[in-house]
Amino acid sequence: MDFPEELKYSKEHMWVRLEGDRAVIGITDYAQAELGNVSSVELPEPGDELEQDDSFGSIEARKTVAELYAPLSGTVLEVNSELGNAPEFINDDPYDAGWLVVLEVPDPEEMNLLMAADVYEDYVTNGE
């Protein structure tokens, strides 16, 4: 299981990489492993406004359909359109090719509500 230290994590198993006022968001290695083989993804449209902790899409896998919850508030700038043809990127490379959305983040202080890598690793290892 991979827990990159430069990322922050939500209890809903989302990761965030802050790049200035932009946040790249995806699901964690733990989450993709729990889901199994991802078969499709439903994502918001560029320009959509997201509120922290609100549902913004879903991931369908062999085992289940899982809701995606925004780890931060912001405006969707980009969605990973590659996932439409290659949802397996989420399983193969959740922290790079498998990213989901990029948000413009008006309040980077929300990052303080997310977990550091070691805290998230403990969260998933020792039970939620």
From TrEMBL:
A single BP term in Gene Ontology: glycine decarboxylation via glycine cleavage system
GO cellular component term, pick one: cytosol
Residues annotated with N6-lipoyllysine modification: 63
Database matches in Pfam families: GCV_H (PF01597)
Chain ranges of the Lipoyl-binding domain: 22-104
Keyword Methyltransferase listed: no
Keyword Translocase: no
Subunit structure: The glycine cleavage system is composed of four proteins: P, T, L and H.
Function: The glycine cleavage system catalyzes the degradation of glycine. The H protein shuttles the methylamine group of glycine from the P protein to the T protein.
UniProt protein name: Glycine cleavage system H protein
Organism: Geomonas silvestris
Lineage of source species: Bacteria, Pseudomonadati, Thermodesulfobacteriota, Desulfuromonadia, Geobacterales
Gene name linked to the record: gcvH-2
